[in-house]
Write a structure and sequence with these properties.
The chain is of the alpha+beta class and 204 residues long. It has three helices and ten strands; from the N terminus they run αααββββββββββ. The chain has helices at residues 4-13, 25-42, 48-74, and strands at 77-83, 88-94, 107-111, 116-118, 138-140, 143-148, 158-164, 178-183, 190-195, 200-202. Strand 1 (77-83) and strand 2 form a beta hairpin.
């Protein structure tokens, strides 16, 4: 027959489980409300346009540098066309260096992030880039273009402007959400600039 001490040992060996319960509806609503308050406080401080413009320019400059490297490694021209109407860039891997799209030649399309477009809005002109959204004057397939040669040099100096356009139709575009990309002819190197509302600063 078990003794009192036996029961005591058994209890120590198998401790009773603690009761577990989920969160009540009131607690859940309190957490949701707290999260909403934090978002309401932080959201106005986030400059979405700035991040969008920076992200768009990083994508474009990276794609341009990749095109330059491919021209050198493949030892033939890479033509970059700027399609302003469709907010995209078209890369032609011009194997025979004739500056036209021929059958069998690779063509790649890069669409800008949603809300990012070619344009300068009311930002002041960056002299090295010029006043147009795309300042390259050579036309390929009806589009302004730049060609990277097998030496890594570019066909001409110039550049483009990018900006983040707000989704609401007719709303103003903040000048500090404008970026510029400058290409040097001799080196082919793309460098990008940001506008702070009054002046340009080199970023890359």
């Amino acid at each position: 027959m078990p003794t009192l001490s036996d029961n005591s040992n058994r209890t120590e060996q198998f401790p009773r489980r603690l009761d577990r319960r989920g969160m009540t509806l009131v607690e859940i609503m309190s957490v949701v409300g707290l999260i909403g308050m934090v978002i309401a406080i932080v959201a106005p401080r986030i400059d979405l346009g700035r991040y969008k413009a920076d992200g768009g320019m990083q994508v474009v400059s990276t794609a341009m540098m990749a095109a330059q490297r491919e021209a050198v490694s493949r030892q033939h021209d890479i033509v970059v066309m700027f399609d302003q109407a469709n907010n995209s860039m078209i890369f032609l891997y011009d194997a025979n260096n004739d500056g036209t799209v021929n059958g069998g030649e690779r063509v790649r399309n890069l669409v800008l992030d949603r809300g990012v477009v070619f344009g300068r809005a009311n930002a002041t002109v960056l002299p090295a880039v010029g006043g147009s959204a795309v300042s390259f004057t050579r036309i390929v397939n009806g589009l302004p273009s730049l060609t990277y040669h097998r030496s890594g040099s570019a066909s001409q100096a110039g550049g483009i402007y990018l900006m983040w356009a707000r989704a609401t139709s007719g709303s103003a575009i903040d000048a500090d959400n404008v970026r510029a990309l400058e290409v040097m002819r001799a080196t082919g190197r793309p460098e990008w600039w940001s506008y702070d509302g009054s002046s340009w600063a080199r970023e890359f």
